Amino acid sequence: MHVLLLGGHGKVALHMTPLLLNRAWTVTSVVRNPDHESEILALGKGRRGKLDVLISSLEDVKSANDAKKIIDTVTPDYVVWSAGAGGKGGPASTIAIDQEAAKHFLTASFASTSISKFLMISWIGSRRNQPSWMPDDAWAGIMLGKTERLPTYAAAKLEADEYMTALAAKRKRDPASASRPFQAINLRPGVLTDEPATRKVELGITAKGRGSVSREDVAIVADQLLARADIDGWYDLVTGDLAVEEAVEKAAIEKIDAVKEEDVDGMVKRFFP
Questions:
Q1: Is the Cβ–Cβ distance between 187 and 256 less than 8 Å?
Q2: What are the backbone angles phi and psi of residue 188, rounded to the nearest 5°?
Q3: Can you give the residue ranges of the NAD(P)-binding domain (predicted)?
Q4: Could you give the 3-state DSSP secondary structure of residue 239?
C-alpha cells in the first residue's frame, strides 16, 4: 500500500511513519519546511517500506483541484491527515489548514478512483452534543477548550470532521459506490502527551470521557486501524486497560462508532442540500 501522510513532521506522524514502513508500505510524507526532509528520511533507514518526502505547504491548497494535483502526483491508496496549523499564523492559518485544506483533500480523496481509506486525526471534543457516555466534568472541560482556549481550532476541526462524515454517509447511500468501498476513519484522541507509549488504550466509546493519551499510542492505533478492512467511523481514544490490538479488534467486531448520537442526516443535508 502507498500512504500519503499529510503533516509528516507532526509528532504523531513522526511516530507513525516507521510503523507504516514496517508493513512494507510506501509512505510519502508531506511537509512544508525543506529543513525537515533529512529528519524524516532518517526514519526510513532499515525499514521494509519505501519513504519519500514531498515539500508542499498545505496552506497553499485553496481548492479540491489543488489537493487533486498532489494526490495525482503521489497516487496513494490511503490518505492520512495528521496536519494542522498548530496555532501558528493565527486564526486565518487555522481555518486555511485545519478546515479548508482538510476539506479539499477529503473532496479529492473521495472522488479518487484509487484511494480507499482516509484517516483523519482529530480530537475527542469535536462534536456538537455531550454524548450520554461522557461524564459532565469531562464535557465541561471540553466545552472550556471549545469556547475559551482554542475556539477557532475547535470550530475548524468540527467543520472538517462533519464534512468527512457527510461524505462517507452520502457515499454509503449511493448504490453505485457499492463496488468501491471507502473507509472514512476519524481518530479522536484526548489530551495529547509526549509520554512513551503504554500500548493500553480505550478506543471507540470512551467511558472515561476526555482523558489523555500519548502521541506514540495515537500513532500505534492509527497504524492498526489502517491495516484493517472492517473499520470506519468515529473512534475516541484515551489511555485505558486494553492492549491496542485487543481494543482495535473489539471496536471492529462490535462495530463501535462514537458518531452514533450525532445528527449525521443533518450533516448530509447541510453539506449536500
A1: no
A2: -130, 80
A3: 7-227
A4: strand
User: Cβ(225)–Cβ(185) under 8 Å?
Assistant: yes
Which grid cell is 128? Answer: 456538537
Quote the cell numbers at residue 117.
Answer: 481509506
Q: What cell numbers appear for 194 in the block?
A: 509526549
Correct CATH for 2-271 of 3.40.50.300, 3.40.50.720, 3.30.2310.20, 2.60.40.1930: 3.40.50.720
Residue-wise pLDDT for 108-123, tens only, equals: 999 999 999 999 999 9
Query: Residue 114 corresponds to which amino acid?
Result: S
CB 237 within 8 A of CB 222: no
- pLDDT average, residue stretch 45-72: 97
CB half-sphere exposure, 111, CA atoms < 13 A: 13
* Strands (DSSP E) found in 69-167: 78-81, 117-121
Whole-model pTM over 0.85: yes
Query: How far apart (Å, rounded) are the C-alpha atoms in residues 125 and 205?
Result: 12
